[in-house]
Amino acid sequence: MRRFADEGAFVVIGDRDTDRGQALAADLELGDAGVRVNAICPGAVATPLLAGNPNADGAELDATRAAFADDTPIGRIGEPADLAAMALFLASDESSFVTGQAIAVDGGSTAGTPWAQWAPLMRQSRPIRHHRPDGR
Length: 136
Description:
This protein is an alpha+beta fold. The chain has five helices and four strands. The strands form two sheets. It has a two-stranded antiparallel ribbon with strand order 1-2.
């Protein structure tokens, strides 16, 4: 679903790439004014929300960390400080040429399943074989 205002492109962009779409639309509309717009797209982060309990204590958060650790290539889930570090970078002068981006802060989850977790058959190196109906 996409809706555009009479003046400017940034009203609502809703699809699979909502964060990226909104960052791009806002960047196109505000870039001339020197405003940089980026989206931080977090993966699993050790918070009470991920633990499923708004009053989660340290033990529950540790259990959540352990439960989700194997889902990322780097072997751990995110911490709130990881997101804060990205926000600080984007707000700093070091990112002055970064704009219109949806930046995944997810420990590599969007890259896919870690190679070591693939089924053994999928990890084998196999030559490509061509099917020839005539049997040659």
